[in-house]
Amino acid sequence: MFDFTSDFWPWFITVPVVVGLFSMVVLIMWMSKKPKDGSSMDGKPLDHKWDETLVELNNPMPSWWVNMFIITLVFAAIYLALYPGLGSWKGLLGWTQAGQYESELKKADDTYGPIYAEYLKQDADTLGNNDEARKTGHRLFSTYCAICHGSDARGSRGFPNLADTDWLYGGSPEAIKASITHGRNGAMPAWEQILGKEGVFNVTEYVLSLSGRKVNQTAARLGQDKFKQLCVSCHAVDGTGNQALGAPNLADKVWLYGGSQRAVIESISAGRGGRMPKHEGFLDEAKIHLLTAYVYNLSTGDKE
Fold first, then answer.
1. Where do the domains of the chain lie?
2. What is the Cβ-side half-sphere exposure of residue 201, based on CA atoms within 13 angstroms?
3. How distant, in Å, are the alpha carbons of 170, 290, 301 from that of 178?
4. Count of CB atoms within 10 A of residue 95's CB?
5. What are the tens digits of pLDDT across the range 265-291?
6. Would you list the DSSP string of 43-87?
7. Within 10 Å of residue 89's Cβ, how many Cβ atoms?
8. CATH node for 190-276
9. For 169-197, what is the mean pLDDT?
10. At 275, is the secondary structure helix, strand, or coil?
11. How many other CB atoms are there within 10 angstroms of residue 223's CB atom?
């Protein structure tokens, strides 16, 4: 499949390639042509001198060198005839990157499919005690998840730690599988226009007090009233959150975007938006199941 946006671009590629190959052939023929009188200039000086001491001699290139050059041109011509390389030309063999990819996937599925099928029959706890399953799960995690959650699964700012017991959407195998399969979209609305800067500060002080931090008590009392008006529908009256909504627990010491006063003010003022992409259709059911088991066992003490 080619995605050229104009008929100009295939010709823009094809013409220079063909002209270039043809020019190389002409150049070789011209350089290999002998004088009409049958004489040879080999080794004779040319009219090129430097400092009256250095003289250029008309020595031909070694025949093996010329032959290698000819071979490369013949190879290039055959390759461009068989494979795509001339604009929208598909090649005589009909090879495509997509076809090659699908072929490799099929080969891998034929080899590893039965193994994943066996893993699919086992629950998360059983797979957690299977060394081979855990190693395979770790490789899947390193390939598809580590770029966001880190190679050790401990996350980073804005990306949850998967190796602890704090879960935004639940830490059961079913909840984890749902997160991997369908993805998650978290949204924390911005409150600065409603609360104002002073109101944001007051709510921040109250939120920090929920986890036992030393705060401005006067501001925290004022912030508590606003919290009850605006925040309890997601974070609950006691600030312990709601996994059904992905609203984090504000009464512990785990902070997704940072627990400093400045970071919490930023979260309340500007809001937050987190997205976990879905893997359904990208990973098959067996791989998602094994990945679920690996992540689940990270937080239950079975760490590699």
1. 1-21+60-91, 114-183+278-298, 190-276
2. 7
3. 10, 13, 22
4. 12
5. 999 999 999 899 999 988 999 999 999
6. TPEEEEEETTTEEEE-PPPPHHHHHHHHHHHHHHHHHHHHSS-ST
7. 15
8. 1.10.760.10
9. 95
10. strand
11. 27
d(CA 29, CA 27): 5
How far lies 64's CA from each of 42, 69, 143, 179, in Å? 17, 9, 47, 63
With vertex at residue 295, the alpha carbon angle to CA 291 and CA 298, rounded to the nearest 5 degrees, is 140
Architecture of domain 114-183+278-298: Orthogonal Bundle (1.10)
Structure token pair of residue 95: 């090879």
Tokens of 156: 């980073």
Cα–Cα distance measured from residue 286 to residue 81, given in angstroms and rounded to the nearest whole number: 41
List C-alpha distances in Å: 224 to 53, 85, 199, 212, 272: 95, 67, 10, 14, 21
Tokens of 200: 């944001």
Residue-wise over 239-274: b if at least 16 C-beta within 10 A, else e?
bebbbeebbbbbbbebbbbebeeeebbbbbbeebeb
Phi-psi region of 260 (alpha: psi -120 to 50; beta: other; left: phi over 0): beta
Q: Which residues contact 89 (CB under 8 A, 6 or more apart)?
A: 10, 14, 80
What's the DSSP call for residue 255?
-
d(CA 101, CA 192): 50
Integer angstrom CA distances of residue 205 from 101, 231, 263, 264, 265: 54, 14, 12, 9, 9
Nearest-angstrom CA–CA distance, 85 and 14: 8
269 vs 289: CA distance, rounded Å: 38
pLDDT for 84-136, tens place per residue? 988 888 899 989 888 898 999 899 888 888 999 999 999 999 999 999 999 99
The per-residue pLDDT of the chain, averaged, comes to 90
